[in-house]
Design goal:
Elements: E1 2-6, H1 10-35, H2 47-60, H3 62-65, H4 69-88, E2 103-108, E3 115-117, E4 122-127, E5 131-136, E6 146-151, E7 157-161, E8 176-181, E9 187-189, E10 194-195, H5 202-216, H6 223-257, E11 260-264, H7 268-271, E12 278-279, E13 287-288, H8 292-304, H9 307-317, E14 322-325, E15 350-352, E16 359-361, H10 362-372, H11 374-377
Parallel strand pairs: 8-11, 11-14
Antiparallel strand pairs: 1-7, 2-6, 3-4, 4-5, 6-7, 8-9, 9-10, 12-13, 15-16
Helix pairs in contact: 1-4, 2-4, 5-6, 6-9
Length: 398
């Protein structure tokens, strides 16, 4: 999607918040109807029946009638599609929408085409029941059939046009690259490049810790707590923006530079789960230490390096040119002779083969194995020859 930052006035922002509340109310009401189904009851109302119920509710409740019927009906249509995706096994179960978390609504149809250019840097779109809202013209507006207005936790408003850009064509050079994702080094390439995802600076981390301590002393529901929560949200949004910008730049570089991109097939969702509780057999009702604090730090490090988003954007930009390799023993296998032993990995950053004496950066050595498809070679297939050319360091790397 092509996303743009919009700048509503104070009155328009209040109207947008009201529209988000209507869409959230209709979605949660449809979810409640769907969740109440049991085997002894009849089928739950479908989209057509829910639209009729919505028309009756708008005739009774004036606050609901004051909102846009297009926004409310689209929320029902989105929920119906979410249920279909859940039954097809492609998406997770629809969940409740909360106020202040991923607020937004979608506009589909002829009203989605009401976009006018104001100047070289500004444009505006017509939002039902809100009026013309300005947005920053950072790129060309695509020809889309729908758009979605959203608000993040930092209070910023965005409009995203539903238009899928074409994939980046392959350079046709025959070069293959392996990408090893890590915690210390965000992405290590098989040609020797070490790329690091930008994070909050030391000064910003100190401010974040100060705000978190201040939040712990705030009374629940107070205005002071709201201000501190908003300040924390702005810092997290700043880190998220930097992370997404880094991912877009790196994935574009990889898609334009290499014909085939190989990554590890990591199950990030399972890797970042909380550890299970360990009951103490000697003391019923008590639990043993499961190293939850250390695991929480590892989970934050994995998520802050954008492991999943990196591969997701690669699959979008280099469609059909991304291969996932079994990650088993790629960090213990020598990229020169193929000898595999746990003793080869001396430390987090140093790799020294005990058989041939080959020494290299541990992450780069793992990336070489990924590019050569070591897990594929273990089944008897011929490894892919990897280019040994070394590219200059990117400006975005640390």
């Amino acid at each position: 999607m092509s996303r743009f930052r919009i700048y509503p006035t104070a009155a328009q922002e209040a109207a947008l918040v009201e529209q988000c509340g209507h869409a959230r109310f209709v979605w949660n009401l449809a979810l409640e109807q769907w969740s109440m189904w049991t085997r002894d009851k009849g089928p739950t109302p479908k989209f057509a029946e829910q639209c009729r119920q919505l028309t009756e509710a708008r005739a009774v409740f004036g606050w609901l009638r004051a909102g846009s019927q297009t926004v409310q009906q689209q929320a029902l249509r989105d929920f119906d599609q979410a249920v279909r995706n859940f039954y097809n096994g492609t998406h997770r179960r629809p969940t409740w929408r909360r106020a202040g978390v991923r607020e937004g609504f979608r506009i589909v149809g002829t009203q989605a085409h009401r976009v006018e250019r104001v100047s070289r840097r500004w444009s505006r779109l017509l939002v039902p029941k809100v009026g013309w809202v300005r947005f920053r013209l950072s790129r060309a507006v695509p020809d889309a059939k729908s758009y979605r207005v959203t608000r993040d936790r930092a209070g910023r408003w965005y409009v995203a046009f539903a238009a899928i850009p074409p994939p980046i064509p392959a350079p046709m050079t025959g070069e293959v690259v392996g990408v090893d994702r890590g915690v210390t080094v965000s992405a290590a390439l098989s040609n020797g490049e070490l790329l690091s995802c930008p994070r909050l600076s030391d000064r910003e981390q100190i401010r974040l810790k100060t705000l978190q301590r201040r939040l712990a002393r705030c009374a629940s529901g107070s205005n002071r707590r709201r201000r501190v929560t908003a300040a924390i949200a702005k810092l997290h949004a700043r880190a998220s923006d930097r992370r997404k910008d880094w991912v877009e730049k790196i994935t574009t570089y990889l898609a334009r530079r290499f014909d085939l991109i190989r990554v590890e097939a990591l199950r990030i969702k399972q890797m970042t789960r909380r550890p299970r509780l360990k009951p103490d057999p000697d003391h019923p009702g008590s639990y043993l230490s499961n190293h939850r604090r250390a695991k929480a730090g590892l989970n934050r490090a994995i998520l802050s390096n954008a492991w999943g988003l990196l591969v997701q954007r690669l699959e979008h930009k280099a469609a059909g040119r991304v291969e996932k390799i079994n990650p088993a023993r790629t960090s213990q296998t020598c990229g020169s002779c193929g000898h595999c032993a746990p003793e080869n990995r001396e430390s987090q950053a140093v790799f020294r083969c005990t058989a041939c004496g080959h020494q290299a950066n541990a992450d780069v050595n793992a990336a070489v194995n990924i590019a050569a498809g070591r897990a594929v070679c273990a089944r008897g297939e011929t490894p892919v020859r990897v280019s040994s050319k070394r590219e200059p360091q990117l400006a975005t790397s640390a």
